[in-house]
Every structure is written in C-alpha cells, then in structure tokens.
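Note to self: user wants both folds in one dump. Writing first protein now.
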Amino acid sequence: MEDMRNKWVDDMKGVLETLNQGVIINDGRKRIVFANRLFLKMIGIPAEELLGVMMTDLYPPEDAAVLQKHIERRILEGQSQYEFYLPKRGGEKLPVLITARQIEDPDGNVFAVVTATDITEQKRAENALRQANVQLEQRHREIEEDLLLAARVQQSLAPSGLSWGKVSVETFYQPVRTIGGDFGLVAPRGKNLSLMVCDVSGHGIGSALVANRIYSETMSQIERGAGLGAMMKHLNTFVKANLGSSVFFFTMVAARLNYEDRNLEFAGAGHPPAMIIQPGQAPRLLESRSAVLGLLDDAVDNEAASEIPVQAGDRVVIYTDGFTESFNSKSDMLGVEGFAEIVRETSKLPLPEMKREILERVAAWRHGPAADDMSLVLIEIP
C-alpha cells in the first residue's frame, strides 16, 4: 500500500511542478508528503523540514484553529476555497488564496491536494483602495461640512418677511440642492422699499457663488440709490466683465415701492412676469423689457424700468421660474397662466396664509420633488 501511495504521489509530481501555483499534498493523517518547488519558495522552508509535518503545526495556535476549521470543511464537502496566509520563515505572512480538494488514489487512500496562489499584489491593491476610500470619505465629510456652511451663509442672505410701516412682506426661498442659484432681497432704504428676485443659471456651488456675488453688488447699487434700469445695466456689465462665460446668465425682476407717493418702480430682465393683484381679481402681469443678463452688452432696454401707480389693497408677487416650470404627472407645465390662477384664488387670504397656500398648491400640482430653485416675495400695500 505504501509503495502504491508513493507511486501515485510520484506520478503527480511531474504535473504539479509545472503549475504557477504553490502545491502540497497531504496524506490521510494530514501530513505533507509533497511540496512543489514554488510552494517551498513561497514559504521559505526547505523540503526536508516540511515533509512529514502537519500544516497546522506551522501556525500559532489561534491561526491553526482557524485553518483546522477550513480543513474540516474540506473533509466534509470534498473541497474548499478561502483566503489565508503562509507563515514564512522569519515571521512574515504571505497572503494566499487556498484551494483544497480531496482525491483518492487507485487503492482508495485519501489525499488532499492544496494549491496556494500568491495574492500579495491583490492585497496591496485592496489596501491602497481601502486607504483611498478612507481619504475619499474624509474629503466627502469635509465637502458636506463646507456645503452646510455655504447653505447657512446663503440662507442668511435670503430675505425675511417684515413689516415696513404698514406694508407687509412675506418671502420664501428653497434651493433644489443644498445651495442654489436663486436669491431674493427686501431692502428698506429711506422712504423706499427695494425688492428683488434673481435666478442664476444652473444649480449647486458655482451658481450659488455667482448669486452671492451678484447679491453683494446689488446691495451696493441699492445703497447708492441707483435707479432699477441703471442698476441692471451695471450688473450686466459687471457680470460680463468679471464673472461671465458662454454658458452662464441670470434673470431678475426688481421693484422699488415708494409708499408715500403710491408709486412702484419696476424692471425685469428675461424673468417670468411679476404680478399686481387686487384680492379676488385677475393679476396684472408686469413683463420684462430687457433680455437675460450676463451674455449681451445691450441686454438692458433703454427704457428698462417703468413707473406703476399702486393703491391700497394691491399685492405684488415676484418669483422665480421654479414655480411656473413645475410639471404634473402628465408632463403638463403649470406655466405663468396656471400660477396666476393660483395667485388669484389665494389673494383674499391674509398674506402669510396666501404664501402658504401658494406653496401647497404648487406642490400639489407638481409630480415629485421640485426640480429647480424657488424664490418668492409677496408685498401687500395697505
């Protein structure tokens, strides 16, 4: 029987030496009876020290116990595959993929043919990828923190509802992402109340940065007392010279209320029409006279601003196209006409309730979440 066993092992040697994997053969007592040259090189132990040894004897007890469980599984199932390591002389651990299969020789004796594939490069790549993922996660957290800070800064620029004398103002701002390209302002100055909404093309960080820069320049113009037409010409020139690109533009609508004179100065540039409404009546649309800003030198009309008399009970509605460009489940767009009808139907409500009802009705029309930034300013003149 021993001769038969040795003959079977000898017959296998020639084949196993040609493989590009380390190979050992264990006999029925789990002792190593053969190791090819590549396996000996991988483990760094000469054949005379390895043959006749149980593989588990080469490992520390805790790892030997793990290896024993794999061996038991192989005995139970006939084969197994798992990642482990070879203990090299000197204490180094060589990561390997182990594949083990039970085989019977012609006399019915059971052997285990065990192959070991060096996966050092794979493990090195996995470790590098793991470290890269840790760095990416850290960078992602940093970006999220930066975005949250940017969102707080942008929210601080969003207009707040106020009472200016007897004039009431309600506002709403919601970016489609953490930060967005819309902004609005409500700026009392002397006997005038300036109001504006602006829509910068695109979404996200770039649009938000540009919007914040336009906001600062707009406030500077308001502090100087510039007329709305002159202000839009300045903003158009400023953006083209300092921030413009072939794919970047912005629209805006601005109003300046002089309550004592009962007069509203109005100007729009490429923006959805503002609305003036008496409660329960159809809104009067205030169309833009100028083109979108940031692209053309002559975008602002020579008569960009108009003077509109107002009376007690008038409500002024200015907004961005995140409201009108809302689509229902049939892909029908709400549009200016649909939004104007919502404004008319809600115009008899107190101003805070009117704002809330407008938001709820637009959300009810819309299929899914908002797809664009949304800004809204409502003014009621007593």
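First done. Writing the second protein, which came from a different request thread.
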Amino acid sequence: MSGPFYRLRGIQVSGSVPMARYTSFRIGGPADYLVRVSSRRALKEVIQTVRRSEIPYFVIGAGTNVLISDRGFRGAIIKLTGSFKLIRHQGGLFHCGGAALLNDLVAKAYRSGYGGAEFLCGIPGSVAGAVKGNAGAWGRAISEIVRRVHAVDRQGRDRIWDRSEVGFGYRRSGIGEGVIITGVEIQLCRRPKTAIRREIERNRKTRQARQPRGFSAGSFFKNPARCPAGKLIEECGLKGYRIGDAIVSEQHANFIINLDRARAADVLALVRAIKERVRKMKGVELEEEVRILS
C-alpha cells in the first residue's frame, strides 16, 4: 500500500500499521501510513507529498518517549532509516544521523577514544529525539555537547542551526513542530579509554539499579524545580497504583509500566489520577515529558 506516496523512491510504505510494535510502551493503534525513509532527498519528497495531500504526519525515532492513542494516528508516521542511522567522526566531531541511537554514539565514541557522551549511556532513543527533548542524566544534558543541528522543515527546506540558535531548555528545545532533525554534530574530546569505560559502567549499573524493567516510555513527568517528580509521586502514596494493566512502578514512581495489555486509555487515566493527587497533596502541577499522540 502506498497511496499518495506511490511514485516516490527511497521509501517503504505500509498501511494500517499497529503502532504498538514500534514504541517502547507497546501501546498504540494503527497509523494510516508508516513511511520508512532512507535518504534526505526521499524525505523532502515525502514532506512535499504530505503537504500537498494535507496529510498530518509525525516522526518517530526509537519510540521511547511517546504514547500513541488506542485509535492510532490518522496520517503518516515517518520513520528515518538507512543513512539516517549512521555515525561517523572527524577527530572529536561526531556526525550522527537523526535515527542513530544514543547508545551507539556512546559506544563509537568510546572505541575511538573520545569522551563527553558517557552520561547518555543507557538512555534509550535516537539522537534526534534526544536533541528535540534535550535529554540528559546525572545533571547533564545533550545540549552541552551539540555543535550543530541539521533538519528539514515543514516546507521541505534544509535548515542548519548552531547550538546557540536551537533554544535549549530543561527537557525541551526550540525546534518547532513538524521539523525533522536529520543529523546532529556532537563535539567530544580526547579522553583515556579506561576512564571512559569506568564512567560508562558506573552509569549503566546505577541506571539498572534505579530504573525498572518492563514496557514503559521512561520518565513520564518532567522534574519540577523543587523536587523530583518520582519523589513527589511516591510521597503521595502512588507506588503500585494501577488502572487496567498500567501501573506506577514500585521501583521508581516516575515510571508507568505496561504490565502486558495496557491501553493508552489506561495510561491516560492513571496520568490524570497522578496529576490530581500530586496537585492536591503537594500543590505541584506535573508536566508530561512523554509526548502524547492522540
């Protein structure tokens, strides 16, 4: 099935694809189109096609920070592949395709003897998704090591931003809706491989000890300024609180786990209950870090 995309080269199109299989939550109904794009030229043609046909679109990376409705998505889900997954480097400047995985960047940097990305170890997801949401850990964020961001905008035009132009903030950037990050330049520095390996292993072990296993989208809420979201949720007695097959993790309260057959509706009902309890007991309005696609 290709529909309006039937003349385009460099893409693969599937119709009525259940999105649960493409997200770490394992939740989500069918998208009208799943469009796998392997080159920049093909991506521009896809953008022009969806504009002409007035088809809504959404770009999904590793699917680690998104909750898709049980009804699915009425439009095209665009997934970057092929050349967009590559990582190459010239000295300490690493050129990452938008679909490159953070853990692959950390591993390649270590093998090449360059440090500065160790804090990203164990964070699931793509480089593009991390830049868009300014992902980070251990008091650091990817914005610190970004040099430039390459993208295609809603009109299919090439865009390049220096780090200072991206508008980074806590778990956000100024990159607009519908703009597709195609590549990111990451600046790292020479460091002894033994030191890099020690930090990677320390971060990995700490993350494994603190964060629950199972189907989730990672930390669900942004941390308010005065207190981590997980601590607020735990102090409100919500660990283990469950609606359907969606449950607040007993290990880390800022994780919502799909036990097996949770629906998006279960997760959203649980999110509303969490936000209401925290608002009433703590006077804090929690804000979702996970993107909700309905």
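Dump finished. Worth passing along: The two ends are 23 Å apart (CA to CA).
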